[in-house]
């Protein structure tokens, strides 16, 4: 489609007229329009236009001077819009449709509410809740910027040039003023800059809510603030719906067992506060569902922050037929993806660089989810739809993980006793993954349960905890064989992990030390990859070099997954009693041999009184998965009674 013409506008406009100035409704959907095709000089002649449909095109931006003063309804669904600020030119807008724009986020939804004071509906839903949230955010941000102004100006000398000081203040405010969850940081920083600039322009005298458009009174009804992202769908895809209202009980006090540093080398208890207990995977959203099994969770890496210590507070959880994406600070379920008939067992994150039709590079967070049906679904989380499906295995997928060095390489491990390495590629201009390519097939003697690329050489070797033990494969792609058998089996000759026994927990504590757990009684093993591997030679069986053992539950039950925070030296594991075992192993990693022969006690154990879920009697619950973000700021645990529990370290 080329540039628009007056003839085309009259053909597609209503009522039919030979004068553009009489058209009130115009349908320009499905014409493959690019942003440059929207000629402001031509469109500004539509002086009476009230309804405009631009959906199903290829628009990346809207021109800033379209000149449609009476526009009340605008449809822009299924485009490539990456910014909404141009919508401020339509102050009379009452209804707006933006679903299917994969680069728009929750923050853009809030920007829309701020910029359009008369907006009543967004994507067919009432906009008043978002409007109320925006007003609450504005009040708090204005207060914080004003306080920052007073503090900032108090440190400036009278001789300092006023213009430079004011410019420095705006930069300082954007950098330092923070409020609300990470998922809304783009919006809050945008507003902080606007508030700061208005404060500077007023000479510091403007301390009221800065730049908040006046709204109809019905939009300001008091409501609990909630971040509500758009519900997005793609035709032919499994239905994706917004999360139901968060259901949870008030966080009960956590009983913490731990001791201060003593002569036995034990560590002081870590300060962890329970934040939220959520029930977001229920069948039919029923609060009575305490049976849906939750299997895995993973924190989204902070791909775009690029600051030292930056980390994500967004976690993905899976169980039953749903995958949920949760903001840990607020407890809000940002997105919920459902696949009827599926039971999800595993999730994993990656970030892909996508080039738009205009040649712009965009960074995507992509979540892979897999389970009972042997399918891998690739979810565009920020936009909220499934953009690809890999038919990976004929049997259920137990676990999956992305390569830490190749963003498109995905390992899938199945009950068919195979591990397959895929190249999922990158989405095309329609945001769809093409056919994935199979790079390697790794045969296992038993079902693989946990996957773990070797931290010091992830491109060369892959570890897997299996029903029959711990195995290692050579995964170098410059080798000719595309189907490979296990290269080495690791033997735990003493303690809890005898040869050939199940290894259901596996993770690296640092670049060398591995934490592993079997189904025997009572311990987690810390062993050295480098010291073990150096003695390999041509042997296919290796006894691991054990560095230490950690005391754990004496349960005979299996499949409690452990996890680690390598930067913090933390090992985590749940148990059959609903406890979370927390180990700070930094002192073990730095201690010179010989290490104590007895298993090391946990730094602390998190417990709850029963009953603890939603005010209903839960006589017993198991915590089968515990994961923390890299800086150990947030910790998420999943139970067999359909509860997601979240803690925060202050």
Automatic annotation (TrEMBL):
Its GO CC terms are: centrosome; chromosome, telomeric region; kinetochore; nuclear origin of replication recognition complex
Q: Name one Pfam family in it.
A: LRR_LRWD1
**WD repeats located where?**
390-424
Q: Which domain of life is it from?
A: Eukaryota
Q: State a single Gene Ontology molecular function.
A: chromatin binding
Residues covered by the Leucine-rich repeat and WD repeat-containing protein 1 WD domain: 264-648
State the residue spans of region: Disordered. Answer: 203-268
- Gene3D superfamilies on file: Ribonuclease Inhibitor (3.80.10.10), YVTN repeat-like/Quinoprotein amine dehydrogenase (2.130.10.10)
Specify where it is mainly localized: nucleus
Membrane-spanning parts: none
BP term (GO), one: DNA replication
Coiled-coil annotation reads none
Domain Leucine-rich repeat and WD repeat-containing protein 1 LRR span(s) in chain numbering: 7-195
Q: Report keywords, A-Z.
A: Centromere, Chromatin regulator, Chromosome, Cytoplasm, Cytoskeleton, DNA replication, Kinetochore, Leucine-rich repeat, Nucleus, Repeat, Telomere, WD repeat
Q: Where in the cell is it found?
A: Chromosome, Centromere, Kinetochore; Chromosome, Telomere; Cytoplasm, Cytoskeleton, Microtubule organizing center, Centrosome; Nucleus
Subunit record text: Integral component of the ORC complex. Directly interacts with CDT1, GMNN and ORC2. Interacts with ORC2 only when non-ubiquitinated; this interaction prevents LRWD1 ubiquitination and degradation. Some of these interactions are regulated in a cell-cycle dependent manner. Interaction with ORC1 occurs predominantly during G1. Association with phosphorylated ORC1 during mitosis is not efficient. Interaction with CDT1 occurs during G1 phase, as well as during mitosis with phosphorylated CDT1. Interaction with GMNN occurs from G1/S to mitosis.
Write out the similarity annotation.
Belongs to the LRWD1 family.
Matches recorded under PANTHER family: LEUCINE-RICH REPEAT AND WD REPEAT-CONTAINING PROTEIN 1 (PTHR24370:SF10), OPTICIN (PTHR24370)
Function of the molecule: Required for G1/S transition. Recruits and stabilizes the origin recognition complex (ORC) onto chromatin during G1 to establish pre-replication complex (preRC) and to heterochromatic sites in post-replicated cells. Binds a combination of DNA and histone methylation repressive marks on heterochromatin. Binds histone H3 and H4 trimethylation marks H3K9me3, H3K27me3 and H4K20me3 in a cooperative manner with DNA methylation. Required for silencing of major satellite repeats. May be important ORC2, ORC3 and ORC4 stability.
- The name of this protein is Leucine-rich repeat and WD repeat-containing protein 1
Gene, per the UniProt record: LRWD1
